[in-house]
Amino acid sequence: MISLQSIRKRFETKNGPVHAVDGVDLTIAEGEIFGVIGYSGAGKSTLIRMLNMLERPTEGDVTVAGKKLSALSTKELRRARQEIGMIFQHFNLLWSRTVRDNIAFPLEIAGVAKREREKRVNELIELVGLKGRGDSYPSQLSGGQKQRVGIARALANNPKVLLCDEATSALDPKTTDSILDLLVDINEKLGLTIVLITHEMHVIRKICHQVAVMEAGKVVEQGPVLDVFRKPKEEMTKEFVKQITEPEETTDAIKQMLADHPEGHIVQLTFVGEEAESPLITQLIRTFDVEVNIVQGKITKIHEGSYGTLFVALNGQKEEVERAIAFIQSKKVEVEVITYA
Ligand SMILES: Nc1ncnc2c1ncn2[C@@H]1O[C@H](COP(=O)(O)OP(=O)(O)OP(=O)(O)O)[C@@H](O)[C@H]1O
User: Which residues form the ABC transporter domain (predicted)?
Assistant: First the structure.
């Protein structure tokens, strides 16, 4: 559905060139929810804005729904853009227009007749859960409702792709979840491909199928969300995964454990699906002369399933602890020995 080939974006500034996106290749399949995560300045906004040519790449090709956008004339591009809706962090609504008229705006531009426009607007109001609010003005709506208007407007011309530029970053956690649920609903009902950028791992965890991690203009890691959560390779990815698997209390508890048992090992075990059901800890205690203390355990639900993390402290003779760790590894459970104190 979407393919980016060797795209680069260089901005010329008075302090010299800035390589905002520096050679990115990505393929996004039809119907997928694809998340791009990275810290501020990583190049996420520039990247997503190149998917509808709000920003033109300095080099490389962008193909969306079979059209090479970089090769289109202005007129052709305007038509191609109708296939690509976009929503924004600060909603970008027209404040002097009602909800209904905001949603109708792209239909007016596309030359859709009034009756058909009204019918479509009613459908969209229903789809995004704004029934009864059609005649309100944006200033009378909550943040979540404003984003619902943004979503309805973005879907007005039946796009194949929806781009979400930090669409939930201005919202509180509960409203964020309700907007994420709406995006999943739309993805499933309409088969829409969704590309989103975010700095919050929660967003990736909750709705994405695939994730790409960006750092300094490059994609440093990419794959199905479950794989990346289970086995993050890059330091940057590990930091993001920790946001979810390892809350601050865990870090504090581990520090305390290591201080109490300086000779011990703290290990983090990560299991997926049925692995989580095998009686691993019982086997460990029965087979090895080690003491096992559970520091913390957590099941994290992600869009494609769930996985569990368990932090345990292993105390005993060094060789025995090492044998116990080798045993866990043989059970296809990810094991990470934590040594920070
Ligand atoms: N129009 C511009 N002119 C000059 N530099 C720019 C421009 N737009 C972005 N940049 C620079 O490109 C780099 C990437 O910016 P970008 O906004 O794409 O990152 P981001 O990951 O989306 O971060 P944020 O969430 O803070 O927007 C930054 O160093 C930024 O200062």
Answer: 2-241
